[in-house]
Amino acid sequence: MTSHTAAEIASQPACWRRAAESLPRYADVLPRRGERVAVTGCGTSWFMAQAYAALREGGGHGETDAFAASEFPDGRGYDRVLAVTRSGTTTEVLELLARARAAGVPTGALTADPATPVMALADTVAVLDFADERSVVQTRFATTVLALLRAQLEAEDARPAGVRPLARAVRDAERALAQPLPAGADGAEQFTFLGRGWTYGLALEAGLKLREAAGAWTEAYPAMEYRHGPIAVAGPGRVAWALGPLPAGLSESIARAGGLLVAGSGEAATDLDPLADLIRAQRLAVAVAEARGCDPDRPRHLTRSVVLPDPGSSS
């Protein structure tokens, strides 16, 4: 039986197209050129915030910081706080939006569910309900958020040099769904994901997907940092997966260590936009989960949203 997660992964090209088409509806939610912006979320949403922050600054759209909602530095001067929250109920995000409003900072939110508290706590909200998910593990909502944000940068002539147009990323996503998974990857004992700039957030997200869905041993690093210690875990039966271009000489270093290198950018057979290559990692997470007898729709110890008890309550 096809899992909900697998079906949601397969729907991403259509979701990305729809996000781009819906861009004019959300002009009041998304950051304006020149604003100093903080983007926040938890887990997967935080990783998408990191990717967007690097893209926005790289394209000259404005200074952008990304924070886990629980670690947001109150008191900094931002023109806008943008929160990413699929459920619209995550405690840390809602508390942050309330604090920002009290401080007079304009807020926006990207969510999948309009019947949640975030609708009242954010000044403006973009509801991407067409990308909502039944599975606990996030896939299409997160990437659709980033697709929407990429579409805005592209529409405002702020696509960074070297980043492909979103239309190309959509075509690459369709290819990523059709390609076989990297030979030997589904049987590996360890996975390290690497990225540079905006793709480091994607690397963090790829590692999270395998941990969530399959309980796998995964790590993620900026690609240039890999040789500064983490390469010590490379070896036979272990994967190093680069989302985006590899630094010079790194492939040779991994080969000498006996590790399996997966590179989705620059190879003739698998030259993919890094966001599209994340789809291959999502598919791998499902394959590894199923091979290990795990349910990718219902990962251990996880729920759709983290809602913490009110510290003032007696329960």
Describe the secondary structure blueprint for this structure:
Layout: H1 4-10, H2 12-21, E1 37-41, H3 44-58, E2 64-68, E3 80-85, H4 91-102, E4 107-111, H5 118-121, E5 124-127, H6 140-155, H7 166-178, E6 190-195, H8 199-214, E7 218-222, E8 238-243, H9 250-257, E9 260-263, H10 274-291
Parallel strand pairs: 1-2, 1-3, 3-4, 4-5, 6-7, 6-8, 8-9
Description:
There is one protein chain. Helix 1 packs antiparallel against helix 10, helix 2 (12-21) runs parallel beside helix 6 (140-155) and helix 3 (44-58) packs antiparallel against helix 8. Helix 5 links the parallel strand 4 (107-111) and strand 5 (124-127). The longest helix has 18 residues, at 274-291. This protein has helices spanning 4-10, 12-21, 44-58, 91-102, 118-121, 140-155, 166-178, 199-214, 250-257, 274-291, and strands at residues 37-41, 64-68, 80-85, 107-111, 124-127, 190-195, 218-222, 238-243, 260-263. Mean pLDDT is 92; it is low at 311-315. It is globular, with a radius of gyration of 19 Å. Helix content is 38%, strand content 15%. It contains ten helices and nine strands. Strands 2-1-3-4-5 form a five-stranded parallel β-sheet, sandwiched between helices. The protein is of the alpha/beta class and 315 residues long. It has two domains: 4-163, Rossmann fold; 172-291, Rossmann fold (3-Layer(aba) Sandwich).
